[in-house]
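Q: Please design a sequence for this.
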């Protein structure tokens, strides 16, 4: 073999090695991204001013069951939640197969929900509790003197193919968090919501968040977290106005489904477009703070993917909290492009 042939062979081998390395790198990226995506929406949390009062209210009014309570403080939780000098009590509540977390900050205490909050403000979030009978549910809520956020239960019109026949009502808990009770007609909702009739309050179908731009939000919740678009509709009309208590409301609604747990629903107000932005100085101790907790098999990989999504890190990185008595050992708190808090955790 002459020198030129030797050189050609060496160059060819080097090129092949580079191609193989490139393929391996691409496969690592692809597999890592898939591996990093979330397995479930585990809990939806909210900050409350008085944990004992909140627990009692959710038990007595909506029949949630308290399953655990812990008191937390220290550097790990400060870094996770982005609140210095915190001490907090956290109660985990269950309804059906779904969970919420109620958190009271003993220190530092946060600010109340603005009294002029509207359903199209970008800090708006709620959970939708499925009921087996809307009339009975509304009567029970009235008996407990809940604050109305809707004028009354609304039945969405049949011309709306994806939402027609759904009955819904917005109301508030003692701290002013908006909640929804919702009843599906026979042709809508997953089978689980039609299988049980022996209870009035069945579980949590979804948490809804107001977004400025659905397509921008999809880049985080679908492309990074891995949730799948499960349904879309455009809702408007007098019933929708009275449900949201927003005159002239016209919404683009997009539902995203995880592998397990409640869905996440986008509410984009096409009109009116005067909803106020999420306060830039918000902290987890403020009572308008909600946080949706999602499970992933690899928090570090998930955090690396989220870094490129336009989300803002509240935590300085993935925090080890394995000694804090919660049901996960690593976590990071982020804010999406609209300011909604998402806690990514690894068990």
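A: Design:
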């Amino acid at each position: 073999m002459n020198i030129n042939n030797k050189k050609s062979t060496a160059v060819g081998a080097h090129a092949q090695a580079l191609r193989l390395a490139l393929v391996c790198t691409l496969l690592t990226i692809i597999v890592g991204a898939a591996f990093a995506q979330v397995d479930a929406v585990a809990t939806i949390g909210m900050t409350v001013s008085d944990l004992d009062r909140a627990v009692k209210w959710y038990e007595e009014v909506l029949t949630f069951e308290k399953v655990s309570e812990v008191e937390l403080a220290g550097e790990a939780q400060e870094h996770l939640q982005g609140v210095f000098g915190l001490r907090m009590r956290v109660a985990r509540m269950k309804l059906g197969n779904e969970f919420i977390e109620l958190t009271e900050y003993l220190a530092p205490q946060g600010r109340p929900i603005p009294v002029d909050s509207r359903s199209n403000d970008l800090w708006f979030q709620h959970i939708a509790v499925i009921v087996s009978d809307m009339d009975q549910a509304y009567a029970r809520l009235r008996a407990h003197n809940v604050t109305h956020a809707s004028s009354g239960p609304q039945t969405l019109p049949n011309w709306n193919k994806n939402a027609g026949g759904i009955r819904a009502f917005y109301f508030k808990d003692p701290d002013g968090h908006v909640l929804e009770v919702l009843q599906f007609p026979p042709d809508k909702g997953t089978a689980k919501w039609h299988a049980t009739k022996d209870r009035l309050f069945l579980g949590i179908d979804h948490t809804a968040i107001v977004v400025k731009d659905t397509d921008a939000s999809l880049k985080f919740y679908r492309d990074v977290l891995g949730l799948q678009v499960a349904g879309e509709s455009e809702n408007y009309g007098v019933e929708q106005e009275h449900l949201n208590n927003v005159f002239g409301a016209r919404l683009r609604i997009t539902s995203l489904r995880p592998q397990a747990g409640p869905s996440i629903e986008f509410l984009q107000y096409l009109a009116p477009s005067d909803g106020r932005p999420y306060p830039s100085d918000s902290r987890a101790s403020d009572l308008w703070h909600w946080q949706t907790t999602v499970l992933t098999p690899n928090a570090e990989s998930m955090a690396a993917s989220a870094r490129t999504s336009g989300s803002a890190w509240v935590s300085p990185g993935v925090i080890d909290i394995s000694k804090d008595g919660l049901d996960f050992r690593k976590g990071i708190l982020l804010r999406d492009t609209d300011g909604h808090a998402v806690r990514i955790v690894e068990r």
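Q: Thanks. Anything notable?
A: Residues 125-218+239-271 form a domain with the 2,3-Dihydroxybiphenyl 1,2-Dioxygenase; domain 1 fold (CATH 3.10.180.10). The mean pLDDT is 91.
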